[in-house]
Design a protein that fits this description.
Blueprint lengths: L1 E2 L9 E2 L2 E5 L3 H15 L9 H21 L3 E9 L2 E8 L24 H8 L1 E7 L5 E8 L8
Parallel strand pairs: 1-6
Antiparallel strand pairs: 2-3, 4-5, 5-7, 6-7
Helix pairs in contact: 1-2, 2-3
GO molecular function: ATP binding; protein serine/threonine kinase activity
Protein name: ATP-binding protein
Pfam family, one: HATPase_c_2
Length: 152
């Protein structure tokens, strides 16, 4: 984790609802689906549906965690790239998620939190947590999206 100041978060409008910011996990999932549909043409170059489901799970968990544990959603950004989607979720809390299965984790069979963060760790890549200079944090991840014409 590195600490650096980030510009204030700007909500990303949900396609089909101009000017409506992403404020819920459902709106974030709808936006994610719209981004995938716009980037990966369903007839010529469709996205692997399993990867899209993984993306929707990661989006949902990160936004839900910001709402439940992070003092609210301060920003949501998605950027499609060649092999997937980069996602950044900002919240108002300085608390970072507990390590999953690493040093300092609880004893076997003991769960401190829920399933959300371990799910994000399992499905996403390039996970970064950056504290914001004015408080809060940004969790950034990359979720790979394959096309169905590529081998799984």
């Amino acid at each position: 984790m590195r600490e650096e100041g980030l510009a204030p978060a700007r909500p990303v409008p949900v396609r089909g609802a101009p000017g409506t910011p992403v404020k819920t996990a459902a709106a974030a999932r709808a936006h994610a689906r719209a981004v995938v549909d716009a980037r990966w043409n369903r007839s010529a170059r469709p996205a692997c549906e399993q990867d899209v489901i993984d993306l929707l799970l990661v989006v949902s968990e990160l936004v839900a965690n910001a709402l439940r544990h992070g003092g609210g959603l301060a920003g949501f950004e998605m950027t499609p790239v060649r092999d997937g989607v980069r996602l950044a979720v900002r919240d108002h809390s300085d608390a970072v998620p507990a390590a999953v299965g690493g040093p300092g984790s609880g004893p076997a069979g003991h769960r401190v939190g829920g399933y959300g963060w371990p799910l994000v760790v399992r499905l996403a890549r390039d996970i970064a947590i950056e504290k914001r200079s004015g408080g809060g944090k940004t969790i950034s991840v990359f979720v790979p999206i394959r096309t169905t014409d590529r081998p799984a």
